[in-house]
Amino acid sequence: xxxxxxxxxxxxxxxxxxxxxxxxLNAALEEGDMQMFLKALRNVxxxxxxxxxxxxxxxxxxxxxxxxxxxxxxRLAVESKDAA
Length: 84
Fold this sequence. Notes:
Mean pLDDT: 90
Largest sheet: none
Shape: globular
Number of helices: 4
């Protein structure tokens, strides 16, 4: 019988792929829950070995989110709601 894999380990492994990470971040952002997006961003940072700054419990600034996304190879973008 195959050994089961811990979900978090599997998630982190899959997020090492840039395409998977981008889709994961976009899906979290589309939910409209900033806490969910920030957790997704932490998971991607963990998967890519990027240390994030800030103190636990503090809301990150747009500048710190942009800097973290940039270090992960992504960028912030704005698009029209009807562009979907």
